[in-house]
Amino acid sequence: MVKILFEKDLCLGCKTCELACAAAHSDSGSLSGAIKESKISRLRIKTKGGKLKLEQCMLCANPRCIAVCPTGALSKDEEFGIIKVDKMLCTGCGLCEEACPFGAIELHTFPTMCDRCAHSDKPFCAMSCPTRALKIKIV
Fold first, then answer.
1. In degrees to the nearest 10, what's the CA dihedral of 135, 20, 2, 97?
2. Are 123 and 115 in contact (CB under 8 A)?
3. d(CA 40, CA 104)
4. Burial of 18 by CB count in 10 Å (0-12 exposed, 13-18 middle, 19+ buried)?
5. From first to last of its 139 residues, what are the pLDDT tens digits of the chain?
6. Is 25 left (phi over 0), alpha (psi -120 to 50) or beta?
C-alpha cells in the first residue's frame, strides 16, 4: 500500500501536485487534455486558519464512505488499499462525500478520491512537487 505524506513546512501552495494529478487521470495524460475533459485533482491543497493542509483519501481501515453507500458501489481494493467506485451501481447520492471525515471525496457525477496512481509506479503528485513536500511511503 502506498501512503502520501505531506510536509506542510515544505509546501509552497503552488498546486503543481493538483495539476499533475488531473493530467495523470485524463485520457490524454496531459494538462491540456485534463482541461478539455474537465478532470479534477483527486487530492487538494487547502488553506485553513492560515496554514496549508492536504486533503486526500487516508485509506481508512474501516472506511465510512463504504459503510454509508446504499448501493454497494464503493469497495476497498485489498492489493492497493484504495477505494474503488463501481459506476454502474453508483447513483451519485453524495452520502460518501458527506461521510468522509477528511474531505477527501468530491462528487462530480461519481465520487472522486485519490487512487495513489495505482496505474503507475508512483503517484504523479509526489513526483511533480518542486519542493518534495509530498513523500511516498510504502506500507
1. 110
2. no
3. 13
4. middle
5. 889 999 999 999 999 999 999 999 999 999 999 999 999 999 999 998 989 999 999 999 999 999 999 999 999 998 889 999 999 999 999 999 999 999 999 998 899 999 999 888 899 999 999 999 999 998 8
6. alpha
